[in-house]
Amino acid sequence: MTTPSGSDTTNRPSKDKAPAPRRIKVFIVDDHPVVRQGLNLLLRLEPDMICCGEAETVPEALRGIEIAKPDVAIVDLSLKDTSGLELVKDLHAYHPEIPVVVLSMHDETLYAERVLKAGAKAYLMKDEAQETILAAIRKVAAGGLYLSERMSGRLLSMFLQGTSAPGNSLISQLSDREIEVFELIGRGVTTREIAGKLNLSIKTVEAHREHIKKKMKLSDATELLQHAIHWVQNEKQM
């Protein structure tokens, strides 16, 4: 076939289509199905993102992430079997190439520095706007860090002053493991059950309880339980 201008187009290849942009594969770890569904739907609406897997426990997450090879993992701090903070540490150890976004109901002033030290690249409260969550995913996928403006300023100030963890409450003095134990106590979990969940001996859990009481200036087990329940209830309302 010849065009009016005389050029032959019989065997001319069609113009190559521009390749579709690579989508950011996101793996979601949260023990609430409604949260996972909401995040999944949010990702589906974005042309540059896709959910490549979900999990509600640490073992499921480690298996799923090993298979899915995501670009970003979103992790909640409160999971059924153990703390999401331990999962962040495991992922940083076994898959340092996968940036982790921690999305949690817990106060960022208590946890943001802890999760960054554990290897996460972003910390967001669950009440953040959807646009903020998407911006954080894109930023860490590109190799950056993401914190709220308030927390960025706080950590920068702490760095310049040469201080570490924020000391605005007694609970901020607890270690990562002690906070896990404290939260489980507040959820009504027994010492034996805590030992099972955290793969610790009962004696070790009892030692953590004593350290918590001492650091928080609590006189006995009853006062420890009351404070733990109050703290968990306040966290849920945030």
Order of helices and strands: EHEHEHEHEHHHHHH
Q: What is the count of distinct domains?
A: 2
Portion in strands: 5-15%
CATH architecture of the largest domain: 3-Layer(aba) Sandwich
Distance between the termini: 71 Å
Please provide the count of β strands: 5
Low-confidence stretches: 1-7
CATH topology of the largest domain: Rossmann fold
Q: How large is the count of helical segments?
A: 10
Q: What distinguishing features does this structure have?
A:
238 residues, alpha/beta, Rossmann fold, Arc Repressor Mutant, subunit A, 2 domains, five-stranded parallel β-sheet, 10 helices, 50% helix
Question: How would you describe the overall organization of this protein?
Answer:
This protein is an alpha/beta fold. The protein has 2 domains: 24-160, 3-Layer(aba) Sandwich (Rossmann fold), CATH 3.40.50; 170-237, Winged helix-like DNA-binding domain superfamily/Winged helix DNA-binding domain (Arc Repressor Mutant, subunit A, Orthogonal Bundle), CATH 1.10.10. It is built from 10 helices and 5 strands, in the order E-H-E-H-E-H-E-H-E-H-H-H-H-H-H. It has helices at 33-44, 58-68, 84-94, 108-118, 130-141, 149-161, 176-186, 191-198, 202-215, 221-237, and strands at 24-29, 49-55, 72-75, 100-104, 122-125. It has a 5-stranded parallel β-sheet, with helices on both faces. Strand 4, helix 4 (108-118) and strand 5 (122-125) form a beta-alpha-beta unit. 32% of the residues are buried.
